[in-house]
Amino acid sequence: MKRDHVVLLADQAIKVLQELHPLTGRGKYVFPSLRTSTRCMSENIVNAALRRMGIPKTEMVAHGFRSMASTLLHENGFDHDVIELQLSHVRRDQVAAANDRSHRLPERRKMMQWYADYLDELKRDDKRAVDHGR
């Protein structure tokens, strides 16, 4: 988007990045392109990975993770403006955008930690179901 964007990370995301650091920590990108380290991994690579996992494009595409997160966060009562800031969406109301330059970092940090904890709980529930033969 050619503009700065502050990304708030949950503890789980920071842990993953620390684990990846020995593999990609010397480069510019955490997820570099397969062809050149001067560019980041493309959305098409993520889509190809989803297809290899057997997930058809009618079910999920790379950009769908953003939509899924936005929907879940809205459904769980997080403030619309906080969600939009986290997703780096530009306000349509240009006057409000020009006047309000807040980043709402504490709210975004809390929201992203909630989301990561929610995903961990889904993973635990899935593991329990598998362990019980469901």
What does this protein look like?
The protein has 134 residues and is mainly alpha-helical. It is 57% helix and 0% strand. The chain is built from six helices and no strands. The longest helix is centred in the last third of the chain and has 27 residues, at 105-131. The model has no long low-confidence stretch (mean pLDDT 86).
Structural class: mainly alpha
| Total DSSP E strands | 0
Mean pLDDT: 86
The major β-sheet equals: none
Low-confidence segments? none
Order of helices and strands: HHHHHH
Q: Alpha-carbon distance between the termini? A: 44 Å
* Total DSSP helices: 6
Helix residue percentage: 55-70%
Report strand %: under 5%
CA radius of gyration: 17 Å
Shape: globular
Features:
134 residues, 6 helices
List the helices and strands and how they pair.
Elements: H1 11-24, H2 43-52, H3 64-75, H4 80-86, H5 94-99, H6 105-131
Quick summary:
Helices cover 57% and strands 0% of the residues.
